[in-house]
Specification:
8 strands; 21% strand; alpha+beta; 6-stranded antiparallel sheet
Length: 232
């Protein structure tokens, strides 16, 4: 084999195998309808009229008895702030041209990036649908004695499942008022211990209750299930 190495070929598999978990159960199960929605948004918010009360003027009486007190329907108005979501990719002109055809690459770099971005946005939307608009990805559960790059946000995979490698995050105080660190790059995720590691150039002295959000997303995401339903 050493003799013929110069003329042997590398054999590649037929396709890219996606190792990501891309199920979006909640998104699939939510009924989509245009009823009660509008595309006529104002500059600040969309106003929805809501029916909130039934007519309680219902009763049964004998002949000639005094009828019950009348009732009426009840309405209210809610103003929903507008939310704007964006996805960005960066490709050089050379990449677009030189990783496009079958003989050049397993798939077009442009196609893979755009299709992947659509999948990633859908996955993130599924997370948002579980949330409350604040954008919390994880919550610090152990205070750090000194400023460090390693942050504990739980004890197992469930506490870090919404954080991805290379994600840019902000770490804020529990009420969002104080920025502990901004635009930190996630360089490590420990699924066993529930810890995340941020880029070495940044450290943070996190305390219990501090929150982790996508950079710039705090209190700017759409409302989700936790805004609509409480445990009480």
């Amino acid at each position: 084999m050493a003799t013929v190495t110069a003329i042997t070929k590398e054999v590649y598999g037929p396709r890219i195998v996606d190792q990501m978990e891309n199920e979006n159960v909640l998104t699939r199960r939510i009924e989509k309808t245009s009823r009660g929605t509008t595309s006529e948004a104002g500059g600040k918010y969309v106003t929805f009229p809501l029916k909130t009360r039934r007519n309680t003027g219902i009763g049964y009486r004998n002949e000639m008895e005094q009828l019950q007190a009348p009732g009426r329907q009840g309405w209210a108005t809610v103003k929903v702030p507008l939310r704007y979501g964006y996805g960005r990719v960066l490709l050089s002109g050379q990449t677009i041209e030189l990783a496009k055809e079958n003989y050049q690459a397993f798939a077009s770099a442009m196609t893979e990036e755009m299709d992947g971005l659509r999948t990633d946005i859908t996955k993130d939307t599924n997370r948002i649908l579980w949330g409350n608009g604040v954008g919390v990805l994880a919550t610090v559960d152990t205070a750090a004695a000194t400023a460090a790059t390693n942050i504990s946000v739980g004890t197992n995979y469930n506490h870090v499942k919404w954080i991805d490698m290379d994600m840019r995050v902000d770490i804020l105080s529990s009420n969002g008022a104080t920025v502990k660190v901004s635009n930190a790059l996630v360089t490590g995720i420990n699924n066993t211990t529930g810890d995340i590691t941020i880029s070495p150039g940044l450290t943070v002295a996190a305390v219990v209750g501090d929150i982790v959000v996508r950079t710039g997303n705090y209190n700017r995401e759409p409302q989700g299930m936790t805004s609509l339903v409480t445990d009480s």
